Amino acid sequence: MTLAVDAPKGSFRISQLIYDTRYRSYTIQFIVLLLFFALLIWLANNTIENLADRDKDINFRFLFNRAGYDIGQQLIPYTNDDTHLRALFVGLLNTLVVAFFACIFATLLGVTVGILRLSKNWLVARMMTVYVEVFRNVPLLLWIILAFVILGETRPGPKEFKVTDEMIAAGTEPAGTMWFWNSVAVTNRGTDLPAPLLDRPLGVFEVATVPINLSVLVTIAVIIGSILFNRALLARAKAVQETTGDRPTTWWKSLLILFGPVIALLLALGFHLEYPELKGFNFQGGIAIAHSFTALVLALTIYSATYIAESVRAGILAIGRGQSEAAFALGLRPNRTMNLVILPQALRVIIPPMISQYLNITKNTTLGMAISYLDLKGTLGGITLNQTGRELECMLLMMMIYLTLSLMISAVMNVYNRSVKLKER
Amino acid sequence: MSETSFVRSEMLAQKLPPVTERGIIKWLRENLFSGWFNSVLTILAILALYSLIRGFLPWLQNSVWNAGSLRECRDIVIAQSGEGATGACWAMVRVRWNQFIFGLYPVPEYWRPTTAMALLLVSLAPVLYYGLRRPTTKMVGAVTIGLLVALIGLGTDALHIAASVAVMLALVAVAWLAPKKLVWLTLVFPLISFFLLWGGSIWGPVGTLIGFAIWAGVFTAAQRSFGVVVGAAIGLLVASLWWGFVQSVVTGALQSAMPFELLYVRSDDFGGFLLAFVIGIAAIAASLPIGILLALGRQSDMLLIRTLCVGFIEFFRGVPLITVLFSANFLLLYFLPRGTNFDLILRVIIVVIIFASAYIAEVVRGGLAALPRGQYEAADALGLDYWQAQRLIIMPQALKISIPGIVSSFIGLFKDTTLVALVGLMDPLQGVTKIVRSDTAWKGIYWEPYIFVGAIFFVVCFSMSRYSMYLEGKLKTDHR
To answer: A26, B12, B151, B286: least buried by Cβ within 10 Å?
Structure first.
């Protein structure tokens, strides 16, 4: 039988370090610290020895050597004469652009599917359930490879798009046809999209060897400006409503503010599209997108959308019935109930898993290496690593970059969580 | 003023509800056409479904199960259904079945992974139905029959069939007489399966097992006077001495005295679903306890341990699995003493375990955080020490809360085993399918291998998620 007594008053005995729970934690932490340092030293020592065996050292100067390989998709100008460092940035941008598009499409698809899965429509709800279960229970890599293989092997070659005089005479169609009023061609080599061009561009300036297109910058600035102006308009309308009870009509003003300046600017700059055209054996003009990119975005979208759909569904279901019943009792119509009562509460549940899904998408872009998409993993962790033989440096650098990306996304999530946390007083 | 009033003496027969309010029409109106928006959705869905079926149904109907090459398949389809018809060529799966399942594992040794799989199911029995005699025996019996069928189907020699079935029958007897004792099989299963799969001398795994026995013995003796953590550390120290210095001497002597070994199979020969299952199951089994320890460490009051655990978890959750796998391939040998060179599969399993345990730790931490503070305080008030409180009060509840998360981590982990192809192992998706597709006989086949591999992954992952839902429902004790 144990009795609660005051701690013994006597002097500190060495055996208390093991037997007294107050001091034991210090002993354990001290030993763990020792072991941890021992492990670090052991690892460092092994690494130094192994490096010495192979006549290597750790330095990152190789990043400034000539890379010597080509990258198919480049968002900043790059030739094989550029350095490994620039190749790294090209790869990083390729990672980010895939992640960006996949996140947007996956969100659109996922939110739609998540809501449709809750729909009262029996058939649609069942179909969405089947879609979610099928796509999330099969490895992502399979979807990536399947999309790539199917795009590459089932689509006709560029020359099969050619309409010859005999075909016109015989009234037959060529094997391949372009989609969307002859603007998009999906061949077995890649996808050709119309390119937006300007007759009177504002020019280009360079920041640290990265060219920045002034016209794009101005367009973005105008869009942001219109959005801000529109918000100010809406805020004023709300203020008027709060004081007088009547809300001034704003929809046409909003439309004008949102789209007017952009259209005017594009007209002034002479915006037009350049369509891809079959010339010789391949399509010329327009933007050519490799299938590795398309397949990666496609597979990431359909796979990650299932997870987003599940979190949207869970978020909406998490809001108790009482909330919607109370809203109906107050006389709110169903769509206003959704907008004013359910969604604000559900978003708090939906957004955090959604952001971690974005993080997963970013990390999953590394699977692009299975279809030779040159992202960060393909440039720094692939070709650069193989050419220079600097595994340690390349892998460390790559892990650090990915870690930074994920910590940044987690930081965004934490800020969001703090801002929407229930304020209990 | 008399007025005749008429009161009906019998009730009118009840009328049927209007035709739109009953039967199938009511159901259709309520579930498919309840408004213009839903009607449009329904019509769109039917159109989509129709085009999907029209594309795939003839292809599936014309399936060919018996052919030697893709060309032959296509000829058969055209002979059956006329020019221009397409058909699935499942003959490829038939021809390459063994490769999809076992990779390049030596053919006469197929009984070994098969028996290991059967033993795995048997050692799962006590996990699923601890101490319940009837379901345990049923499961073990069913596995025995399945194993017998599988071994005969694989064309195993009589000796190995007899040996495997004898072992299984012994296990059925154990399941009937003392179902709880089967847990011991679960505990030693990793070593048994290691021996069965890789082969070599039996004394190596036995020596390792003795090391664990020493650890357990020392731990039980020391734990009473020094506490759980210190006791485990002392046990590990003694066991390490055994593993590091004594084991090789003893096992060498035993091997020369009583040689007993199976054909050694190199890791390069592992492939197909065998590889996926080996990596997946090893990682699942090991990552759960490690993850729980990490989660406890992250919740610990000791600053240093908490910091280490947070750093570990956040690092591995922050980097993609591929980079970790590539580190196993390129870097692990830098970090280990000179001249160490161990198996690629083993290296991959180790890093996958580390990677998965970081995710499990986060899930378990969620469960721990969801427990009301009162539970911890009640455990303290009862005078339980830290480990007793964890074992008896906290963990059973926290793990129950985190079941869905844990299982979805497991599913993710199993799906991620396909990534090992990128470091040169022969997984079913990339490795085997690539071999099949580069064979001249099957060049140009793409739907069938991916559908086959995808279907197996789907079955495994889907049943895992359904089991977790069942478990969740079964363990639900609160009233809603």
So the answer is: B12
A contacts of B333 (beta carbons < 8 Å) = 50
Instruction: State how far residue A33 is from chain B, nearest Cα, in angstroms.
Output: 8
Q: For the residues B416-432, what does the mean pLDDT come to?
A: 84
Of the candidates B46, B323, B334, the beta carbon closest to that of A398 is on B323
Q: What pLDDT was estimated at residue A197?
A: 79
Residues 6 or more apart whose Cβ sits within 8 Å of residue B178: none
Confidence of residue A4 (pLDDT cuts 50, 70, 90): low
| Residue A395 to residue B446, Cβ atoms within 8 A | no
Q: What does the pLDDT look like over B214-231, one tens digit per residue?
A: 888 888 888 777 777 778
Q: Is the ipTM of this complex over 0.90?
A: no
Q: Which of B321, B323, B331, B354 to mutate to test the interface with A (most CBs of A within 10 A)?
A: B323
For residue B323, the tally of other CB atoms under 10 A from its CB is 21
Residue of chain A nearest B315, judged by CA positions: A403
Residue where the block lists tokens 């009328």: B15
Separation CA A56–CA A205 (nearest Å): 41
Inform me whether the pLDDT recorded for B458 exceeds 50.
yes
Give per-residue pLDDT as tens, B169-210. Answer: 898 888 888 888 888 888 888 888 888 888 888 888 888 888
Mark B235-260 as b/e (b = at least 16 C-beta within 10 Å).
Answer: bbebbeebbeeebeeebeebbeeeee
- The 8-class DSSP code of residue A345 comes to H
Helix-then-strand count for chain A, H and E: 15, 9
The beta-carbon neighbor of A141 closest among B317, B334, B419 is B419
For residues B208 and B191, the answer to whether their CB atoms sit within 8 Å is: yes
Give the A:B interface size as CB pairs under 8 Å.
154
CB pair distance less than 8 Å for B320 and A364:
yes
